[in-house]
Amino acid sequence: MNISLEIKSISSSETYPIRHEVLRVGRPIESCKFDGDEQTETIHYGAFENNNLVGVISCFLANGCHFYTGKNYQIRGLAIQGYLQQKGYGKALMLHAENFLRQINCNTIWLNARTNVNQFYTKLDYIEIGAAFEVPLIGKHQCFFKKINL
Ligand SMILES: CC(C)(COP(=O)(O)OP(=O)(O)OC[C@H]1O[C@@H](n2cnc3c(N)ncnc32)[C@H](O)[C@@H]1OP(=O)(O)O)[C@@H](O)C(=O)NCCC(=O)NCCS
Q1: Where exactly are the structural domains of the chain?
Q2: According to a count of CB atoms within 10 Å of the terminal CB, is the N or C end of the chain lower?
């Protein structure tokens, strides 16, 4: 069977089932709603394999993590369904989001990564900044950034 991957804009509520299954296992569905999800500048993308939603990513206009001047976006909620991880879908969603953010003159993309996936971000040329820190109920995180427009 041929596999087709398509990336499309989706609504915030469409991200919840995959956030829940991958990022908030065993926690209430309300824990999958993030502050800013409904803000007009926020962008949510879904990766569709043969028309089934298999991965999500969200981009929030936000300062933080050492970036307080210019136009900065935070990437959150990147998740690929377990049985489809390690097939390039996470990278495809990141590059799709980056391309869009570059076009809208975003200066810096930043994110708080779970430290067990640090290498995923370094392979995409994200740079580690600051010390690792604990997020309650989730675990150790590390901030990463990439300058996409000077
Ligand atoms: C982390 C995640 C988004 C990566 O997406 P993915 O589709 O599985 O990864 P990709 O296949 O696109 O990987 C791209 C590259 O990163 C590497 N990589 C992916 N996950 C990795 C990990 N956990 N540790 C180290 N390297 C990793 C891949 O081996 C690949 O390397 P290559 O280019 O040399 O072949 C996905 O595995 C996932 O949803 N994990 C669970 C939720 C999670 O941790 N989300 C991130 C929160 S910060």
Answers
A1: 5-111
A2: N
Question: Does the structural domain 5-111 have CATH classification 3.40.630.30?
Answer: yes
For 1-40, the pLDDT digits (tens) are 566 899 999 999 999 999 999 999 999 999 999 999 999 9
> Which pair of structure tokens corresponds to residue 53?
């939603």
Q: Which residues pair with 9 in a beta bridge?
A: 45
| Cβ atoms 31, 89 nearer than 8 A | no
Q: Which of 94, 95, 120, when mutated, tests ligand 1's pocket best, judged by the most ligand atoms within 8 Å of its CB?
A: 120
Ligand 1 atom at shortest distance from the alpha carbon of 55: 39
How far CA 67 is from CA of 7, 39, 47, 51, 106, in Å, comes to 28, 20, 28, 37, 12
Atom number in ligand 1 closest to CA 121: 16
Q: 47 vs 22, 57, 103, CA distance in Å?
A: 14, 9, 20
CA separation, residue 130 to residues 91, 138, 144 (Å)? 24, 19, 9
Instruction: Yes or no: say if 77 and 23 are a contact pair by the CB < 8 Å rule.
Output: yes
